[in-house]
Amino acid sequence: MNYPDVAPSAGTILIIDDIPNNLRLLSDLLTKAGYTVRKVTNGEIGIESALLEPPDLILLDIKMPGIDGYEVCDRLKDSERTRQIPVIFLSALDDEAEKVMAFHAGGVDYIPKPFQVVEVLARIETHLKLSRLQQQLQQQNAQLQLEIEQRNSAETALAILNQGLEARIQQRTAELQAENKQLLRLQTELQTALAQEQLRSELKSRWITALTEKFRTPLTVIPSVVELLKQAPDCSDDWSRHLHSLTDHTQAMKQTLQDMLLLLDADAGQLAFTPLALDLTQFCQQLAEQWLLPSQPEYKLVFVQFGQPPETILLDPTLLRPMCSHLLANAVRYSPTGGTILFELVYEANQVLIRIQDEGIGIPPDEQEKVFQRFYRARNSGMVAETAVGLGLAVVKQAVEQHGGRISVRSGIDRGSTFTVALPLSPPTQPD
């Protein structure tokens, strides 16, 4: 029998059924389809297994000795650890009353026995996709809420620094509160449209574009106001520190909006790619100087070139700049004070390598492929006090792919990280 194609990382499924034949049948079916399967024969053990290591989805028999499937589902939904796991009920009775009880208990679907292979696989895949979309939406909502809180903090800081701006800040705060309510309404709309993936994508695109337009002017004005306040005769050292912090947070918010727009254009297939003849050595040297002189005097940067550049190198500077900037930002962010950052440019026959190495905290081996995902941060990144949101390396990867290149990372805990970008000297006119 042919099974639908499922990715190797399709997910883990916990089967709770007291009938060995059912367990064997479902386990063989799902394993062949690419899923990781765990099996238990009663409800108590099933609850313990789910709490110990939550699966991605649970197949739950209704009629079992001891506690039945309804009680198992009730107890799973009572726990914060297992509440969001989708539960599909299994029953030998195709009874409407049982179906109603299953949905009241918190189940997402109901499959009668005997099983239809195609139906079982289709329903499992559908609910796994819905669950993953829900998790992604919750992460995005949490990130957006964090940005709102940071923006409110910045507005409050302005009010403390200059009473003469109090009236304007109060007016702006009222506008932000109204915008926050609008954001909450948009989040609710996104949640209700979760099953309609195309509509969800369109709403997200509109929201990000509107967000950028709304805050472009305030984020541009704040640095100008800060510079004026710094020049005030009564500006103390304490005020200067607050103003410097405000400038840093404003710049971080602007960079986040720019990154979100770039990724949004990439998702829509509208990211511009315009390769130009470029002096790459000079470009990289100037970029390194902008990053570390004089804004980061506590770090040492060593720039090294190997090989001779060809007469013509075609690269897109509008994508190359954020790519290199984010890699340098990561190196600075996670390096110890006084650390050395190595910036290498290696010219080869058909490609150029851009390699940035730091002496920082490193990346756990099992997370090195994940760091290029959007909003993903390694579990040890919390050891460093910084405001990164997990978009920088996603932007780097997108810029590299636009050039038809590749990116890799070599790292170890407390051994630093080395990011290597390989770009073809003549990238495709229309990248994949």
UniProtKB/TrEMBL annotation:
<dbReference type="InterPro" id="IPR003594">
    <property type="entry name" value="HATPase_dom"/>
</dbReference>
<feature type="coiled-coil region">
    <location>
        <begin position="127"/>
        <end position="196"/>
    </location>
</feature>
<feature type="domain" description="Histidine kinase">
    <location>
        <begin position="210"/>
        <end position="427"/>
    </location>
</feature>
<keyword id="KW-0902">Two-component regulatory system</keyword>
<feature type="domain" description="Response regulatory">
    <location>
        <begin position="12"/>
        <end position="128"/>
    </location>
</feature>
<keyword id="KW-0597">Phosphoprotein</keyword>
<feature type="modified residue" description="4-aspartylphosphate">
    <location>
        <position position="61"/>
    </location>
</feature>
<keyword id="KW-0175">Coiled coil</keyword>
<dbReference type="InterPro" id="IPR011006">
    <property type="entry name" value="CheY-like_superfamily"/>
</dbReference>
<dbReference type="Pfam" id="PF00512">
    <property type="entry name" value="HisKA"/>
</dbReference>
<dbReference type="InterPro" id="IPR001789">
    <property type="entry name" value="Sig_transdc_resp-reg_receiver"/>
</dbReference>
<dbReference type="Pfam" id="PF02518">
    <property type="entry name" value="HATPase_c"/>
</dbReference>
<dbReference type="InterPro" id="IPR004358">
    <property type="entry name" value="Sig_transdc_His_kin-like_C"/>
</dbReference>
<keyword id="KW-0418">Kinase</keyword>
<dbReference type="InterPro" id="IPR005467">
    <property type="entry name" value="His_kinase_dom"/>
</dbReference>
<dbReference type="Pfam" id="PF00072">
    <property type="entry name" value="Response_reg"/>
</dbReference>
<protein>
    <recommendedName>
        <fullName>histidine kinase</fullName>
        <ecNumber>2.7.13.3</ecNumber>
    </recommendedName>
</protein>
<dbReference type="InterPro" id="IPR003661">
    <property type="entry name" value="HisK_dim/P_dom"/>
</dbReference>
<dbReference type="InterPro" id="IPR036890">
    <property type="entry name" value="HATPase_C_sf"/>
</dbReference>
<keyword id="KW-0808">Transferase</keyword>
<dbReference type="GO" id="GO:0000155">
    <property type="term" value="F:phosphorelay sensor kinase activity"/>
</dbReference>
<dbReference type="InterPro" id="IPR036097">
    <property type="entry name" value="HisK_dim/P_sf"/>
</dbReference>
